[in-house]
Every structure is written in structure tokens, then in C-alpha cells.
Design goal:
Elements lengths: L1 E7 L1 E2 L2 E2 L6 H7 L2 H7 L3 E6 L9 H21 L3 E6 L4 H9 L4 E6 L20 H5 L5 H5 L12 E4 L6 H9 L3 E3 L2 H12 L4 E7 L21 H14 L2 E7 L10 H18 L3
């Protein structure tokens, strides 16, 4: 499989800090060699923000504009775009580069990322990317990302979101987003998704993992999935619907004292590629 491995080292528009250090750590842990040993043709590509950093919101959207261009280039060449990204706002650039008219989303995260500026109680931009992806907020800035179109909520599967703010929880449950927390529910959700999309973008926030096994970042929540459960779920997605692009996000090496986070990240990335390669 031909892969463009997109290195996106930003956390809320700031380069190489916190979770923005995650991509480099995964590369240092041997990700390129792992994928090449599995027979894939991998080209690493640095994605860098155009212009200087002024503030988090503008910086994050600047990153997505550049990322959208890199994803679009990969797609035109029949190459699979895989991002290692500091935070979940990278989804906006990934989706814009894919073209979202018939694209679905399968999103693994301990959080809903479905807040808006009107519902958030923290003001944290990292809690809003999925809401932005479906057109609920930041609409003017999203429109400034070339190729971006909101994804229909019915084309979104959210797996294991177990830490929701009250208003966010209410919005999610009133939405058409498919909320799942086990493999049976995932299968049912994929049944509906497979007939409605041409392919999916798979988004894995590493804090979906149980912090007793792997603590990915400062936002890790109790409970969650094992690495094996995430890998099995990714495999189910690949069996049911083409995976057109993927991202691994929100890994902070500062919380990975024993290297288990990096090891988990490599296993999950390998599973994403295997699943994407299992269907044309």
C-alpha cells in the first residue's frame, strides 16, 4: 500500500508542545520501519502551519488548511493519507482534503468533542472538532478550509465517548450521530453507514484507551478500551466500509513514562493500515 504519513506536530496551533510532541515520538519509536517491514511504501511528509502563530483558534485552522492540501494531493495520486496529529482539530483538514460529500466518520475518543462555543464550560477548542465537522460551530473558519463541507450527522459513528459535559451529552443524544460502546453496537452502526457512504475517515484519539493500560494524555478518563479492543473495532470497520484516510491523535509523550503509549500507538497505526488495505 502507498502511504503518505503526515506529521502534524501541533496542539491547538502551537508546534511541538504537549500532544504536539506525539508525532515525533511515534516516528522515533520506529513507525516508518514497522510499516515498511509490512511491505508498505511509506513517504513521511511534514505538515507545517503557514504563517506565524497568533492565537489558538486561528493557528489550529491554519494547520488544517495546509493539511487539507496534503490530503488532497495524496488522494489524487491514489495514496492513503495517514496523519499523526497533536490534537483532534486535524480532522477538519483531513475531511476537507478527502471531500466530505459521501464521506463518513468513525471516531474513537473518550470525549464527545461535540461542544460548541455556546455550550462549552471550559472554552477548550479541543472539545469542539466533531461538532465543527458536522457544521454545528466555527462555520466561517471551516468554510475557509479549501474543500470543506460538513459531514451529515447520520454518517458519524462515535465510539466509547464516556466523558461528556451535560449540554454536550444532550446535544449528542438529540443528534443523528450514532453513539456506540461495544462491538455489537458498532456492527449495527456500520450496517447503516455502509449503505450511505463511499468510505470513511477513521479518527483515533489515543485517550480512548483505558488509562490503567495506557495513559495517553492529561485528559485521560477512567474506563475505556484496551488496545486489543480498539484494534478489533478498527478491523470491523475495514471489513464493512472502505477506509479512505485515518488519523492518530492526542498522544502526549510526557505521560508515557514506560513507553507503553508509543507501543500502543504503533500497534493501532498498523491496524489502521491493515484495515484500510483489506478493501480496495
Amino acid at each position: 500500500m502507498n502511504i503518505h504519513l503526515l506529521d502534524v506536530p501541533y496542539s491547538l496551533g502551537r508546534e511541538a508542545t504537549g500532544t504536539g510532541l506525539g508525532p515525533a515520538r511515534l516516528l522515533d519509536a520506529g513507525l516508518l520501519a514497522l510499516l515498511r517491514d509490512h511491505g508498505h511504501d511509506v513517504r513521511p511528509i511534514q505538515v507545517r502551519r503557514a504563517g506565524e502563530f497568533r492565537h489558538e483558534v486561528g493557528g489550529a485552522f491554519d494547520v488544517s488548511r495546509t493539511l487539507a492540501d496534503r490530503v488532497r494531493e495524496a488522494q489524487r495520486g491514489g495514496i492513503f493519507p495517514l496523519a499523526l496529529a497533536g490534537d483532534c482539530s486535524a480532522c477538519l483538514g483531513m475531511l476537507a482534503g478527502l471531500g466530505s460529500a459521501r464521506t463518513g466518520i468513525v471516531w474513537f475518543d473518550s470525549h464527545g468533542d461535540f461542544n460548541t462555543p455556546e455550550t462549552t464550560v471550559t472554552g477548550f477548542l479541543g472539545g469542539m472538532p466533531l461538532a465543527a465537522a458536522v457544521g454545528r460551530c466555527w462555520t466561517a473558519l471551516c468554510a475557509g478550509i479549501p474543500g470543506f463541507e460538513p459531514v451529515r450527522e447520520s454518517r458519524v459513528v462515535l465510539y466509547d465517548a464516556r466523558a461528556l459535559d451535560p449540554k454536550e451529552d444532550g446535544m449528542l443524544r438529540a443528534s443523528a450521530v450514532r453513539l456506540v460502546d461495544d462491538s455489537m453496537a458498532l456492527n449495527r452502526a456500520l450496517d447503516g453507514l455502509a449503505t450511505d457512504v463511499d468510505g470513511v475517515y477513521v479518527h483515533v484519539d489515543l485517550d480512548v484507551l483505558d488509562p490503567r493500560q495506557v495513559r495517553a494524555n492529561v485528559y485521560a478518563e477512567p474506563g475505556g478500551l484496551s488496545v486489543e479492543q480498539v484494534i478489533a473495532a478498527i478491523g470491523l470497520v475495514g471489513q464493512r466500509v472502505p477506509i479512505r484516510a485515518a488519523a492518530l491523535t492526542a498522544y502526549d509523550p510526557g505521560y508515557d513514562e514506560d513507553g507503553r503509549g508509543a507501543a500502543a500507538g504503533l500497534r493501532i497505526v498498523s491496524a489502521l493500515i491493515d484495515a484500510a488495505a483489506s478493501r480496495p
